[in-house]
Amino acid sequence: MTTATNNDEPERYIYSEVDMEEFKKSPVKRELLSFATAMGRSCAPSLKTRYQYDPSNPLVGLSPATASLHGSLRAMTETWLKDIPPDTQAKARFGNPSFRSWHERLVERSDGIIRCILDCHRLHRSEQQQSDADGMLSYPDGVIQHCSEAGYAVATNTVTTDSKRKEDNAVVTELREYLHAGFGHPIRLDYGTGHESSFLVFLLCLCKIGCFGSTQQISSGDSSSSSTATPPVLAPVALSIFSQYLQVTRGLQTDYMLEPAGSHGVWGLDDYHCLPFYFGACQLIQNDGSIPEEQHSPSCIHGNNLLQTKGDMYMYLGCIRYIKSLKKGVPFFESSPMLDDISHIPSWTKVSTGLLRLYEGEVLDKRPVVQHFMFGNIFKGECCVIK
Prior knowledge:
The chain is mostly helical. The chain has helices spanning 17-24, 27-43, 64-83, 98-124, 143-155, 169-181, 193-208, 231-255, 275-283, 304-310, 315-326, 332-335, 337-342, 348-364, 367-370; strands spanning 11-12, 190-192, 217-218, 227-228, 259-261, 374-375. The strands form three sheets. It has a two-stranded antiparallel ribbon with strand order 1-6.
């Protein structure tokens, strides 16, 4: 058994069933699952935390670093797909080859995107004002908007980041791998929960290096430090950042017809995602009286008017609305029997608990999904044999 090297380049360590069994009981798997759990729980309204995602004002609650990431994701949604349209001559049922050009752009611009995130964190972390009574992050007027615009500009290549700090090189090298893996595979032309989990790893690493905001408790200043972000800090990331990420990935899935990686077909949640269903179910838990009565029961997903009016605000409802838009004319219990079964569970608390178990059992504990994970000095793969 050997551990990760000091090489800056992240490496793959899961090759065999022996490696997989080591990963299942490893600290890094527990860390990732705990992070996903905390992200979900932060979405549940409480008397202490009254953050509510507003799609018309998505930057509320974000830190300068995560606002920069949000801007870059928005640029991907608004410009990249327009710049790189699908190849209309492609004959394959799945996987339009133009996705390879889209992914090449991601690789080319990821260095600037990540350095902009780090710059915004470094330049503005001292400007954080006293958090309000709900523990929300607060910055002077214009800071968060400026960072979002900076992230957008770097992603559209209209400006280049001023920073090429050598001390950031190791972090940038590692984070780029997780970002590249978070949007699908350019050779196989597919996307699935493993890619979604790579994006979660990317967010975990940003959290560990302090980019979520200074309400975190950071044990030391190096990239290997552990951190605990409070629910008011995590909730905007889980709901706002992931909502923008979903806009990107859904565009990729529909425009480039990416093949579902490891899909269970109708017997899965949907063909591509798991985490948005968990985060969205947590968001609908009735803790403080803030959730409208019509949304108290998971059976509310059968109300199409509710899906149309609330789908942008509530992630789970948005996921169901999206699925129904793709499978028009087919009864929901036929097109999505698992989601239909879930709608008969009596509470969102039980739904969220079951979805978290599903994520662990069907994603993190499945070798075909996690064997492509890369490990470095922030997301440490100390559990696995190097081949």
